[in-house]
Design goal:
The protein is an alpha+beta fold and 148 residues long. The protein has a domain of 69 residues: RRM (RNA recognition motif) domain (Alpha-Beta Plaits). It has two helices and six strands; from the N terminus they run βαββαβββ. The strands form two sheets. A four-stranded antiparallel sheet has the order 2-3-1-6, covered by helices on one side. A hairpin with a 2-residue loop joins strand 4 and strand 5. It is elongated, with a radius of gyration of 31 Å. The model has no long low-confidence stretch (mean pLDDT 78).
Length: 148
Amino acid sequence: MQGSKLYVGNLDQSVTNQDLQDLFSEYGEVKEVNIMEGKGFGFVEMSNPSEAETAKEALDGSDCKGLTLKVDEARPPRRREGGGGPPGRREGGGRPPGRREGGGRPPGRREGGGRPPGRREGGGRPPGRREGGGRPPGRREGGDSRRY
């Protein structure tokens, strides 16, 4: 093992930093314990790689408060790029996917900037119409209340 930092997974929500400190201190000097709140995992740093290896071999697969621990050498954190936001976005934020470079009209749109005749903006049901499609029984198109 190269490093002395261990990943500890499958932790019960009730496990504390002190619990891990006590558990791992049986296998050497614990330098630091850090549980990720509400995530079910944490990290334990031992004073040297040989102690970390000993603790890993002894505790991986062992029981801790009813759950089977997963202990492995911690990997370096992934390099994060971009400005955050929801997953699936392009790095660095920017224009939403599907938008064209340079703005302008989408393909198929007419000159003049208006909507094509007979099309409502935003599609869907016109304002005031009920779900389920169609008119209320006995009503004619255009709001005339006379019955046929």
